[in-house]
Design brief:
single chain, 473 residues, mainly alpha, globular, disordered C terminus, GT87, UCP010361, membrane, Putative membrane protein
Length: 473
């Protein structure tokens, strides 16, 4: 359903719906007219998929300097760093070592993969494909001496290419799912497809594996499939922790509607999927499986976090245990605030809005905020606040930080007379302020739904609530 009196057009045209796009369209004839025809093949979803492919290609070009020198020099200054090539040898994938093996010889030579199991599975599979396309190296010979990075540069490049193709599929699927969450608003996914941060950070780490699962979970919830929603959340949590926070949004929505059975189904499916996904890794090496959890617990103030600014600017030594307690308490209070906001909202919030607010809070109080973590928010943000002005403000802060963090790591920002890089602290604060801007407008939309651009019928487990002549879910 739409606002009373609205036309039954097949979808909302972005140049008539968004003031920024309407202004930009003036250079090509203005917003689409009421008599505009539809192309027989170029549907909105196909256009969005093509746009995603172009953005991903631009991202690969941006990584060209590191490709040329195989990530051996100046990867920070050229802003093309990626974790992928270094872990090919650093975690034993050059030998196709199982990430959680408890083999004493392997563990003596290689560190345990410090990521959740979904990433470990994907990296191991990518290594197997790498070996296949590079001529099946003699793994028995490698078992005698761990190969040095410089000795397998051709495989390192192939390993990155395999991942780039995998991540491209993930990004395209994420666009497809996001474009289909709201039947009349496929163009909202353009904020994801055209995001500069997708091009800049997509290849830094494995985050796109979780992003596509979050996008799919939003789609499944919008289609009224609680079991599938839970399975996707569980698989996402087995890949990166943050998809778990979508359950907070589901809790709020089910609480408002007193649909406790729906909540139990989603949580139960998520738990079962997470357990099944983790079981092979846990059974092959329980101690190695636990490394992810201990690794994160032992970290101190790290890149991108406000805690790093506090520690460096105040010359403070903040222990990991204290930081864990404070950040956990801060996140708990944030979640309580989102719960109260969601329950007191005049109309049912949308899952993307609640999910965005919870994940944003986690990143703001977390002790590490890596540059690629912007991808965690991206699919949620474009649906939570599909307005280009606000998305551009947020993306500008992220792009600014992206440049500054690599210059910081490369030593470019170090003062000539020595001392701390205060410019990097400024970049962290700018990034946080840009994120808080988006948090603010999403919060306003929840409290005052008249500001929310998305007003339509939503099916599935989401209950329709009617106020005046507007139908909002």
């Amino acid at each position: 359903m739409t606002r009373a009196g609205a036309s039954a057009e097949p979808h909302v045209h972005p140049t008539r719906d968004d003031a920024v796009l309407a202004g930009w369209s003036a250079s090509v004839g203005g917003p689409v007219g009421t008599r505009a025809g539809r192309h027989p093949w170029w549907s909105p979803v196909r256009v969005l998929l093509a746009l995603t492919a172009v953005v991903l290609a631009v991202g690969m070009l941006q990584k060209a300097p590191c490709w040329e020198d195989s990530w051996t020099e100046e990867s920070y200054a050229a802003m093309c760093y990626s974790d992928l090539p270094y872990l090919y040898t650093g975690r034993g994938f050059a030998e196709l070592a199982w990430p959680w093996t408890d083999d004493a010889v392997v563990r003596e030579r290689y560190e345990v993969m410090e990521y959740p199991v979904g990433i470990g599975y994907a990296a191991w599979a990518a290594a197997a494909v790498t070996h296949l396309v590079t001529g099946r190296p003699d793994l028995d010979a490698r078992a005698a001496v761990a190969p040095a990075y410089a000795e397998v540069l051709a495989e390192v490049r192939a390993f990155v290419v395999v991942h780039a193709l995998l991540f491209a599929v993930c990004a395209l699927l994420a666009t497809w799912f996001l474009a289909r969450v709201h039947r009349r608003r496929p163009w909202d996914a353009a904020g994801f497809a055209a995001a500069p941060t997708l091009a800049l950070t997509g290849l830094v780490n494995w985050d796109l594996l979780a992003v596509v699962l979050v996008a799919a979970a939003l789609w499944a919830w919008a289609r009224g499939r609680p079991v599938l929603t839970g399975v996707l959340v569980g698989l996402g949590t087995a890949t990166k922790l943050y998809p778990l926070f979508l359950l907070g949004g589901v809790l709020v929505l089910c609480w408002r509607r007193r649909r406790w059975r729906e909540l139990a189904v989603v949580v139960g499916a998520a738990t079962a999927a997470w357990v099944v996904a983790n079981l092979p890794a846990y059974l092959s090496g329980p101690a190695q499986w636990q490394v992810f959890w201990s690794f994160n617990a032992d970290r101190g103030p790290d890149l991108g976090s406000l805690w790093l600014v506090v520690a460096q600017a105040g010359d403070l030594a903040i222990s990991p245990s204290v930081l864990n307690d404070v950040s956990t308490a801060g996140f708990g209070l944030w979640c309580l605030g989102v719960l109260v906001l969601g329950l007191r909202a005049p109309l049912d919030p949308r899952l993307a809005q609640l999910g965005f607010l919870v994940v944003a809070g986690f990143l703001l109080v977390n002790k590490v905020y890596s540059p690629q973590y912007v991808l965690w928010l991206l699919p949620l943000a474009v649906l939570a606040r599909p307005r280009w002005r606000d998305l551009l403000v947020w993306q500008a802060g992220e792009v600014f930080y992206f440049a500054m963090v690599w210059w910081y790591l490369g030593g470019v920002l170090e003062p000539g007379g020595g001392g701390d890089a205060g410019a990097y602290w400024v970049a962290i604060v700018v990034r946080v302020l840009a994120q808080l801007w988006l948090v603010g407008v999403v919060t306003r939309d929840v409290l005052r739904p008249a500001h929310d651009p998305v007003v339509e019928e939503r099916s599935g487990p989401q209950l329709t609530t009617t106020r005046s002549n507007v139908v909002v879910v």
